[in-house]
Every structure is written in structure tokens, then in C-alpha cells.
# Entry
Amino acid sequence: MSANPDHIAQRSPDAVSPVVGTTTRPAVARMLAEEPQVVVLSSLFPSSRQPTAGLFVRERMFRVGRHLPMTVVSPKAWFPLQSLLRRWRPGFRPGAPEFELQQGTEVWFPRFLCLPGLLKRFDGFFMAIGAFARMRELKRSGRLDILDAHFAYPDGFAACLLGRWLNVPVTVTLRGTESRHARDAVLRPLLQRSLTRVDHVFAVSESLRQVALELGVPENHVTVVGNGVDIDRFRIVPRNQARLELGLPASAPVLITVGGLVERKGFHRVIACLPILRQQFPDLRYLIVGGPSPEGDWTDRLQEQCRSMELTDCVQFLGPLPPDRLSGVLSAADVFVLSTRNEGWANVLLEAMACGLPVIATDVGGNREVVSSPDLGEIVPFDEAESLCVAIGNAIRHPWDRTRIRRHAEENTWDQRVTVLETHFRAIHREATLQRP
# Structure
């Protein structure tokens, strides 16, 4: 039975036992007073070779790292012959340096064995094996008190194993892939095994919380902590100024989508709507911001789609842009569109709103939780082309209150999210310390 520090404080000094387990009272008090050392485990994390991979993980956790000591371990998939595959697929698994110092935080990139497209049921185990040496070193040096994994599989599964091997508490953040994995007959048992054994589960949306509950996680072990937005970085830029920098006509209707150029994000579904929309809005422009991602690269396919549909005069591929440049590009547009197949909590929706943009998004994942009012945009059924086209047309015509949209973003900053996470980490550390033999 674990000790309760509040209960101890109410007892007389003579009644207090000099030890908790085999640890003296002064030692326990000292450990409770120490800041918990958090180690983030996420295979998706930015590096110098993939600067846009997992930015949403870094954005969230580096903010927590302003309050608690933090290290990142980001295992990278590897197998002996993968360099040969790059001759045919140049962007395949670019890897990462062994170590980087990012914004003052240590980020380690150990490798783990992963055969492309094969034996996915073993990815979690091999990830744990690949990360073990670094984790053990962090534990021995007193820099691992809580292991915080992102994505339930394979990262969460690996964290569950590492937590057991190293005797540290584990948390897992659900970010969107879990809905698909929960429907997979092979991966579902692995999700259940890991999520029901960790100390706490964070879900970035209520829809993902429901996935966790359906997998058997107790209600009091799941907390919804959505992503936030940096309202200083993402702000409204005067439209004429923004359009002048991009060479856009001042009066043309402008759509925009930001994301990795992969099938899931649905750029091709928006492009398919453009011929119909141009009949109503002849000067229509569509800005595509993004590039290859760990999921793949549809750049050539999307550009070919534009050529075949004779849309090259109205679609601009701006490539991947750093976050600091997005405010101007977003502010140049009239409507943000995300026809995505799956999301957990799409940060980009709040980022667009912080720039005053209404959002048209598909009814998947947490999108409805972000676009929570008709004043902010519209949610449409996934893969219904007619509904998407109608919603975009209506959004172009609608007189949006952009100040109201911006205010919604201001109500969803990172500060409140970080406070919840920090509180949970401290409580988990305190409980683990009191139970320590």
C-alpha cells in the first residue's frame, strides 16, 4: 500500500515510521521535492534530415520541457539493405544523426530493426530493444523518472516494455493512428496489452479517448489533452500585404491547405473540386503548402493531376515552409480546406484560425472538436465530393467574422494544455516515488 504524504503530515511526529519501504523519510522527502525527469519516446520527431517530421510532438513536449527536465529518444526504423532501396526511392528512411541538441534539449536517435511492410507485430518489441541502451543510461544517470510515449503502436508498446524492464512509470499519448490500429486484427491485441498496463493515457481528442475506453482502459486512466496553438507565431497579417508577397490578385478567392503531401491529407480531393468551383469563381486560386513526409510523397502525382485537369494556372505548390513563414501565407487565403482521411487533433486547423481563416474539414478524428461552431467553418462527410464542393463554395461567399475566429484560437493556447500535462507528470512521479521499495 502506498503512503499518502497528506496523511503523514497529519500524524504526530512520534507516530511516523522512519522509513517508507527501505527508503528513509528524508530521502523520500528529497525525491518528492525533485523535478521529475521526463523522457519522451517518439519515433516521429524532427531532425536535421527530416525537419518537419513530428513537429506537433516537439511543439507540445518542448513546452512541457520549459517546466520539467526533459530528454527525447526518437528510434529510427532501419534494416541492413535499406540504403539499396534509396536508389529507387531516394527519400526512403533518411534516418537521423545519432544525437542532436534542439533548443537546449538532448535528442537521441537510436536505430531499431524494422523490415519495410513486414512483421509489423514485432515493431514494438524491436523498438524497445533498439532504445534500451540509451534508456538504461538515462536511468542510471538519474535522468529517467517518467517515460512518455507518443502513438500507441509501436511507440506505446515499446514504452510499456521499457517501463517494465527499467521499473519506471509510463504514459502514452494517442494521436490518431490508434483508430486504424484498433481495427487491425493483428495490432489490436498489442494496443490493448500496452494501453491497459501503462500508468496513464493522454488522448488529443475525445474521439481517441473513446477508442481507449473501447480497448479496455479505465476511465480514470484517460485524459483528453488537445493540442494548442502559438498565437504569437500564428497571427493575422494584412491581406493585401500577404497577397502582394505571393503575387496573388487582391480580389481572387484563395483556398489553402497545409500538410504533408500524402494521400491521407486529401489534396487530390480538393483539386478534384476546382473545375466545378472555377465555374462559379473564375479567378479562384489554391495554395498547397507542404512536402514529403514519413508517410510518403505525392508531389508528382498531385502535380500530374493538376496538369491533366488543366489547373496549373490556379494551383500553386509552395513546398514545405517553416512555421514562422506560415502566418503570411495563411493570411493571404480566404478559406482553409482539409479533406483528410484521418486525424487525431490537427494543429493546423487552429493555426489557420489564429490567422483568421474559416475551416472546411472532413468529419474524421477530432476535427469536429476543433471546428466546434458554425462561426468557425463547416465539417463535411469524408469522401463526398459534392458536399466538399458545396461547402467550399458557401465558405467563399460567407461574410466570416475573422475576429471571432481568431478569438477561438486565443481560447486554445498551449498554456492550459501544458499545465494539465505537468500536473499529471508530477502526480505520477510522486506516486511512483512513494511506492518505490
